[in-house]
Design brief:
There is one protein chain. The chain has 445 residues and is an alpha+beta fold. Helices cover 20% and strands 29% of the residues. Strands 1, 2, 3, 4, 5, 6, 7, 8, 11 and 12 form a 10-stranded mixed beta sheet that branches. The chain has a 5-stranded mixed beta barrel with strand order 14-16-17-19-18. Helix 1 runs antiparallel to helix 2 and helix 6 packs antiparallel against helix 7. The chain starts with a strand and ends in a 34-residue tail after the last strand. Zinc ion (ZN) binds next to loops.
Length: 445
């Protein structure tokens, strides 16, 4: 008997009409345990760059890390292939599933670096295949095989930096596609009880729950939090009003800002690579159709546009209050320039660093009676309407006005946050250290 370690990466088995790669992983957890494999970590749910143009949904890839006896290796691979074939929506254009089997305990540094690039930028299938060949990983790609990129990235993202957990509960087959039934009051209760150790349960602005997705996928609900114990406890407080087929706790990079990469200069911004960058507001914000707010920022190297879209709520309000000269840090995805538009940062967050003084020019006051003078026309002096005094050679006075905006961090409203966006609740809770987290007892059912 020889015990071995394998990392199994999965990506892109779902489509907008059916399925969910996390569900494939959840089914595999049960099947692989039945075969005799044991999990050395929680299954990981790795959200990849949300700004890749050909990906429209959550863009999440999965990795299962297991130990097993060498004798069942063939059965394990067969089970994975079978399950993907069973669950994936092969007919859907744009769904190109990929599987990666990577053996050995250690993940090579180059594959870890590759994963970071897939999360923060754009990577080609060729890059993935080159690494797989170099380190003798096995890959199975269906259709155009693009899913291999995400599958390898999920293997390589070992979550050594910040990470969170999500418990996902799935619906029974006959309910999929129908309205979800969960007791809403219990979700608000759960949020109150477990705060601040869970996040993105409800949208406080709209008083609406956000843990249940819409659409035909098999997920009933997902609760995100800091520890496996917390999300499990939170799930116990929520009352589903329909049967739950299974639930699994995932370890994930959600809510960590992992996609955002700092760039020093505006000229270094590239399309599709989410950024954090500083700049000075170069013109007052303007509203474009559909109530989106646009404004340019600049530094010594370049000028780019920033956009806050209507559904971003709070952020859009803040953006509309900015003015020329304000110094900010912008966080968000980058849209390629088009004929109509410059390179644009789609804002997820703004940090207002410095507010420009807002001033206005008022007429001076009468030196005799103190009331505000009236101008008699350009360079004709001022006159007091109350006491009749006249003044020549007086100028307007500059007055400093109060800004209706404070310095600080502003984040898009919960309902429009990306999976990767770090919400307010998580600031100060970032983790740094663990390479693998051994699963607690009862991490799936
Ligand atoms: Zn007067």
């Amino acid at each position: 008997m020889a015990s071995k370690t394998m990392h199994i990466g999965l990506d892109d088995t779902d489509s907008t009409r059916k399925g969910c790669t996390t569900y494939v992983a959840a089914v595999l957890v049960e099947k692989l345990e039945k075969l005799g494999a044991s999990f050395i970590d929680y299954p990981s749910l790795i959200r990849l760059n949300p700004n890749v143009p050909w990906k429209t949904r959550g863009n999440g890839a999965l990795c299962l890390r297991i130990r097993y006896d060498e004798s069942i290796e063939g059965q394990i691979k067969e089970t994975v292939l079978e399950t993907v074939e069973e669950q994936a929506d092969f007919q859907f254009r744009g769904t190109d599933p990929g599987i990666v089997f990577f053996k050995g305990e250690k993940i090579p540094r180059q594959i870890k670096a590759f994963a970071k690039n897939v999360i923060t930028g754009i990577v080609t299938l060729k890059d993935a295949v080159k690494l797989l060949t170099e380190f003798s990983g096995e890959a199975v790609g269906f259709k155009n095989g693009r899913g291999i990129i995400g599958a390898l990235a999920a293997v390589g993202e070992t979550l050594r930096g910040d990470y969170t957990f999500e418990i996902l509960a799935y619906r029974v087959l006959e309910n999929r596609g129908l309205k979800r039934h969960v007791d809403e009051a219990s979700i608000f209760e759960m949020d109150k009880t477990t705060a601040p150790y869970t996040f993105n349960n409800v949208d406080a602005e709209k008083n609406r729950i956000v843990i249940t997705p819409r659409g035909p996928d098999p997920i009933l609900l997902g609760i995100r939090g800091e520890t496996p114990e917390t999300v499990k406890k939170a799930f116990a407080i929520v009352k589903p009003l329909e049967p739950v087929e299974r639930w699994v706790i995932f370890r994930t990079n959600q809510g960590t800002d992992a996609h955002l990469k700092k760039v020093e200069k505006l000229s270094q911004i590239r399309p599709y690579s989410p950024v954090i960058v500083r700049g000075t507001v170069a013109a007052n914000p303007r509203m474009i159709p559909k109530r989106h707010i646009i404004f340019p920022i600049r530094d010594e190297s370049a000028e780019v546009d920033c956009a806050a879209y209507e559904p971003t709520g709070t952020l859009r309000k803040v953006a509309s209050k900015l003015m020329i000269g304000d110094h900010i840090k912008a966080y968000g995805g980058v849209r390629a320039p088009s004929q109509k538009r410059h390179l644009t940062i789609n804002l997820e967050k703004i940090r207002v660093l410095k507010l420009a003084p807002k001033t206005a020019f008022h007429n001076p006051v009468c030196q005799k009676c103190g009331s505000r003078l009236k101008s008699m026309g350009k360079s004709k002096g001022f006159r007091c309407e109350k006491c009749g005094s006249r003044y020549q050679g007086l100028g307007k006075v500059e007055v400093r006005l109060k800004r209706d905006l404070k310095r600080g961090l502003y984040i898009t409203s919960t309902r429009s946050q990306r999976h990767l966006t770090k919400p307010f609740r998580r600031y100060g809770m970032e983790k740094r250290h663990v390479a693998v987290e051994r699963p607690i007892d009862g991490w799936h059912s």
